[in-house]
Amino acid sequence: MSSITILGSVSRTTASLPFYLPSVPAGFPSPAQDHLEQRISFDELFQLHRPQLYVVRVAGDSLQGLGILDGDLVLVDKSLTPRRGDVVVACLNGELLLKILSGDQHQVILASANPQYPPRYVLEAEDFQIWGVFVGLCRAGRANA
């Protein structure tokens, strides 16, 4: 089961990082591309200046089939209207979950992307809200970086 911890809203920064164009090859590097560089801001690249964005930390492995892993930071947009198939932050009976929104107009289902976890059918009497839609992912590449 994947639960989440809300870390807070995304705040604007003025920091920028070097960005090498057009891409960094995973194979043999091309010498012609060695000096193509500009500076980018993650605020601009991911439109982080929008006040409806917040970050949550994932706990659990129920979405590993989508590449969302335990410990990942997930960017959530609370202004988007959720659609079937979206990964959403759901509040079910006071518990925050990160799940795939499924079902039809008569039945809401919160699905996993790990066969170890069955779908969770939301019952009519349960307290259920969607707090936002998954729009991005950040993962540390090195444990002690």
In DSSP terms (H or I, runs of 4 or more residues), the helix count works out at: 1
CATH topology of the domain at 3-13 and 50-138: Umud Fragment, subunit A
Our measurement of the CA-to-CA distance between the termini, rounded to an integer number of angstroms, reads 28 Å
Estimated structural class: mainly beta
Largest sheet: 8 strands, antiparallel
In CATH, what is the class of the domain at 3-13 and 50-138?
Mainly Beta
Shape: globular
Major sheet: arrangement of strands? 1-4-5-10-6-7-8-9
Quaternary status of these chains? Answer: single chain
Q: What level of helicity do the residues show?
A: under 10%
Number of strands: 10
In short:
The protein has one helix spanning 42-45, and strands spanning 3-9, 17-20, 37-40, 53-59, 73-77, 87-92, 95-103, 108-111, 120-122, 128-138.
Which descriptors would you attach to this protein?
145 residues, mainly beta, Umud Fragment, subunit A, 8-stranded antiparallel β-sheet, 1 helix, 41% strand, globular, Translesion error-prone DNA polymerase V autoproteolytic subunit, LexA-like, nucleotidyltransferase, Peptidase_S24_S26A/B/C, EC 2.7.7.7
